[in-house]
Amino acid sequence: MWNKRIVFSMAFTAVILAGLLFFYQRTDMGRKEEKGDYQIYQRHYAMITGKEDSDFWDKVYQSAMEEGKTRGAYVERFGEHLAVEYSCNELIELAVKASVDGIIVPGDEDQETIRVINTAVECGIPVVTVFRDSTGSLRQCFVGNNSYDLGQDYGRQIIQLMEKNEHTSGNVLVLVNENRMDTRQNLILLGIRETLEREFGEGHAVSVETVPINHTRSFSSEESIRDIFLNSEKLPNILVCLNAVHTQCAYQAAVDYNQVGSVQILGYYDSDTILNAVAKHIIYSTVALDTEQMGVLCVQSLDEYIETGYTNGYMAVDTRWITGEDAERLAE
Fold this sequence. Notes:
Blueprint: H1 2-27, E1 43-47, H2 54-70, E2 73-77, H3 88-97, E3 102-105, H4 111-122, E4 127-130, E5 141-144, H5 147-164, E6 169-177, H6 183-200, E7 205-213, H7 220-230, E8 238-240, H8 244-256, E9 264-268, H9 272-279, E10 285-289, H10 291-308, E11 314-316, E12 319-323, H11 324-331
Parallel strand pairs: 1-2, 1-3, 3-4, 4-5, 5-11, 6-7, 6-8, 8-9, 9-10
Antiparallel strand pairs: 10-12
Helix pairs in contact: 2-10, 3-4, 5-6, 7-8, 9-11
């Protein structure tokens, strides 16, 4: 009997929450301006970002929200400021129950993620995956960059570093997310390895290995990356980071353990903290995605699909590499 009560209570809470979200959407799809006026929106889009790389997602969301305002669409940071913390998949299900007009969410290849995305699409709600794709799903569009091309870019940066230090051999360590099924990571690795093979030939002396980084609890990423620097016998020549969190943890560990210059770091993203580290040559270079363009394209693709029934399956986001000299100029 007690178990039934718990199940009933959880179901009742979910229904109430979905009902409140639905009521909010239909009666107050807007934000009260400072002058006391209300902005009227024709559409309600749910943007689900998760908790990782908050600075990155803040900028993507800000851009999407501003673009939505110009198009009569309210883009909500779905799941923010709730008393209960929900997973991305649970938030997709809640967004479906709230009858939003479109969903923007970072994807992955987990079967449960694919299932909830497909459920949304089958309910008539278009879905745009952003930054990471869910290739096996029914999503309408993926907004991001070509992971294989990004891997080639990392490979070329590795080659530049080796030529600069006059090395023909070395150990490259790529930090990957332990808890995510992500074809993006595999494609980046493929791009790195094939670029090095074209440059140095088959059987070259540059090893490319991966280290899974745990994200299950607070500070677990930092602890995993610090463990790499604590093992002096296995320190890599080059450390490749595929997200902002890993980049920040890696350069901080390099400073703390006096390994600046001994371990060359290739970073990801262009936050002020990361750019400062690049300018100080703690990080050799970092790749920056156009977060403003990313947010704009997400909203545009949802609007296009709703209005025409069609949108491009892939929208590319511009990237650029920032070196120490570039970061110094940006800081001026």
